[in-house]
C-alpha cells in the first residue's frame, strides 16, 4: 500500500507545530507585558505645558484639593481646574502673584486669549471599566490611597498601578484604607493622630450600639453586658496599644458605615 497522504503533509504538520509554538510564546510574552509594572504605568510623569507645582500649592500654601478639583465629591469624574481658578491669584487683575514670571507666561496668555491650558492627562482607566470618584471619596477613601502624596510632588506622577488587581486588592480589604470623612484630603493623615475617646464617642453619638462597637474589637464580643465608653477605650488600648491603629479605625468604619466594595465583574464592567 502506498502512502495515503502526499509527502508534503509531513511538512504541514511541522509548520503547524512551529506556528503554534510562536503563538503560545507570543501570548505568554503579551500577558507578562500587560501585567508588569511598566504597562501599569507607575511612575508615568508627563511634562505639563505650565510648570504647576502641587508641592507649592497643596503642600506649602496648604490649598485644599477641592479648591481646584471641585467636583471630586459630587461627580463620578474629578475635574482639573479651569484657568479662572488660577486667575484668582495669577491674573493680571487684582490677584497678580508673580504675573510677570516666565513660568506663568502661558497662564497670562490663556487669560488674554480665553483658551484653556492643554494639561496632559496622567491617570486613565480604560473606557470598558467603570470608575466613580465620589463613591470612593464619600465612603472614606482618601486621594492618597490612589494617587500617592500629590502634596509633595513638583510634577504629578502616577503612584499606583490602577490595574484591575490593584482595584480588587482594596475592594477585598477596604479596612486598610478607610478613614474619617474630614480627613479625606489630608494626605499627611495617620490613624495614630486620632484621639481614641473622640473617635469612639463619635460612633456612639451617631447611634451605634456600644456592644456592636466592642464586638469589632478582637476579644470584645466576649463581654457579658453592654460596655460603657470607658470599657471600650480600655479594651481598645489593650488590643491595639496606646496609639490608635489603622486596623482599629478601618474595621469599625467598615462595619458601621456598611462599606462593602463590589467584587463582581458586572460592577466594574457594565
Ligand atoms: C491650585 C489648584 C490645585 C490644587 C489646590 C490641587 N490641584 Fe491637583 N491639579 C491641578 C492642575 C492644574 C492639574 C493638571 C496639571 C498637573 O497634572 O499638574 C492637577 C492634576 C492633578 C492630578 C492628576 C490628574 C490626571 O491628569 O490624572 C491629581 C491626581 C491631582 N491633581 C490631585 C490633587 C490632590 C490630591 C490635591 C490635594 C492634595 C490637589 N490635586 C490639589 C490643580 C490643583
Ligand atoms: C490661592 C492662590 C493661588 C492659586 C489659586 C494658584 N496659585 Fe500658583 N502660586 C501661588 C503662590 C503664592 C505661588 C508662589 C509664589 C512665589 O514663590 O513667590 C505660586 C506659584 C506658581 C508658579 C511658579 C511661579 C514662579 O515663577 O516660580 C506657577 C507656574 C503657578 N503658581 C501656576 C499656577 C496655576 C497654573 C494655577 C491654576 C491651576 C495656580 N498657580 C493657582 C498662588 C496661587
Ligand atoms: C479609589 C481610588 C481613587 C481615589 C480615592 C481618588 N482618585 Fe482620583 N483618580 C482615580 C482614577 C482611577 C482616575 C482615572 C479616572 C478615569 O480615567 O476616568 C483618577 C483621576 C483623577 C483626576 C484626573 C481627572 C481627569 O479626567 O483629568 C484627578 C484630578 C483626580 N483623580 C483627583 C483626585 C482627588 C483630588 C482625590 C481626593 C479628593 C482623588 N482623586 C481620589 C482614582 C482615585
Ligand atoms: C483604596 C481602596 C479602593 C480602591 C483602590 C478602589 N476602590 Fe472601588 N470602592 C472602594 C470602597 C470603599 C467602595 C465603597 C463601597 C460601599 O459603598 O459599600 C468602592 C466602591 C466601588 C464601586 C461601587 C460603587 C459604584 O460606583 O457603583 C465600583 C464600581 C468601584 N469601587 C470600582 C473601582 C475601580 C474600577 C477601581 C480601580 C480603578 C477601584 N474601585 C479602586 C474602595 C476602593
Ligand atoms: C473593582 C473593579 C473591577 C472588577 C470587580 C473587575 N474588573 Fe476587570 N478590570 C478592571 C479595570 C480597572 C481594568 C483595566 C485595568 C488596566 O487598565 O490595566 C480591568 C480589566 C479587565 C480585562 C482586560 C485585561 C487586560 O489586561 O487588558 C478583563 C478581561 C477583565 N477586566 C475581566 C474581568 C472579569 C472576568 C471580572 C470578574 C471576575 C472582572 N474583570 C472584575 C476593574 C474590575
Descriptive report:
The protein has a domain at 195-243. It is built from 13 helices and no strands. The protein has helices at residues 8-35, 54-60, 65-68, 83-90, 105-113, 133-137, 143-147, 164-172, 196-205, 210-215, 229-240, 246-256, 265-268. Helix 4 (83-90) crosses helix 5. The radius of gyration is 27 Å and the shape is flat. Bound molecules: heme C (5 copies). One heme C is lined by residues 125, 129-132, 135-136, 139, 141, 145-146, 162, 167, 170-171, 174, 177, 259-262, 267-268.
Number of helices: 13
Rounded to the nearest angstrom, the radius of gyration is: 27 Å
Overall body shape: flat
Overall residue-averaged pLDDT value: 88
Q: What sequence of helices (H) and strands (E) makes up the elements?
A: HHHHHHHHHHHHH
Fraction of residues in β-strands: under 5%
Bound molecules: heme C
| Assembly annotation | single chain
Q: Give start-end ranges of low-pLDDT stretches.
A: none
Number of strands: 0
Class of secondary structure makeup: mainly alpha
Structure in a nutshell:
Helix content is 44%, strand content 0%. By secondary structure, the chain is an all-alpha fold.
Write the layout of secondary structure elements.
Blueprint: H1 8-35, H2 54-60, H3 65-68, H4 83-90, H5 105-113, H6 133-137, H7 143-147, H8 164-172, H9 196-205, H10 210-215, H11 229-240, H12 246-256, H13 265-268
Bound molecules: heme C (5 copies).
Question: Can you tag this structure with a few keywords?
Answer:
single chain, 270 residues, mainly alpha, binds heme C
Amino acid at each position: 500500500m502506498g502512502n495515503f497522504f502526499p509527502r508534503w503533509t509531513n511538512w504541514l504538520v511541522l509548520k503547524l507545530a512551529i506556528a503554534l509554538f510562536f503563538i503560545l510564546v507570543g501570548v505568554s510574552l503579551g500577558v507578562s507585558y500587560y501585567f508588569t509594572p511598566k504597562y501599569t504605568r507607575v511612575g508615568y510623569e508627563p511634562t505639563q505645558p505650565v510648570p504647576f507645582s502641587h508641592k507649592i500649592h497643596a503642600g506649602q500654601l496648604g490649598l485644599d484639593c477641592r479648591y481646584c478639583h471641585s467636583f471630586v465629591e459630587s461627580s463620578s469624574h474629578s475635574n482639573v481646574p479651569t484657568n479662572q481658578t488660577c486667575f484668582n491669584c495669577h491674573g493680571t487683575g487684582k490677584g497678580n502673584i508673580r504675573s510677570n514670571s516666565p513660568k506663568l507666561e502661558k497662564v497670562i496668555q490663556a487669560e488674554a486669549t480665553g483658551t484653556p491650558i492643554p494639561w496632559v492627562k496622567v491617570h486613565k482607566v480604560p473606557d470598558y471599566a467603570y470608575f466613580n470618584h465620589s463613591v470612593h471619596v464619600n465612603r472614606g477613601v482618601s486621594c492618597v490611597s490612589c494617587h500617592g502624596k500629590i502634596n509633595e510632588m513638583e510634577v504629578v506622577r502616577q503612584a499606583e498601578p490602577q490595574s484591575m488587581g490593584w482595584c480588587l486588592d482594596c475592594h477585598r480589604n477596604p479596612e486598610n484604607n478607610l478613614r474619617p470623612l474630614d480627613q479625606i484630603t489630608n494626605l499627611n493623615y495617620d490613624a495614630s493622630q486620632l484621639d481614641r475617646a473622640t473617635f469612639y464617642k463619635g460612633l456612639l453619638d451617631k447611634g451605634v450600639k456600644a456592644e456592636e462597637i466592642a464586638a469589632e474589637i478582637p476579644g470584645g464580643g466576649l463581654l457579658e453586658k453592654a460596655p460603657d465608653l470607658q470599657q471600650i477605650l480600655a479594651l481598645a488600648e489593650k488590643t491595639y496599644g496606646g496609639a490608635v491603629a489603622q486596623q482599629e479605625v478601618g474595621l469599625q468604619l467598615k462595619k458601621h458605615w456598611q462599606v462593602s466594595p463590589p467584587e463582581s465583574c458586572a460592577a466594574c464592567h457594565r
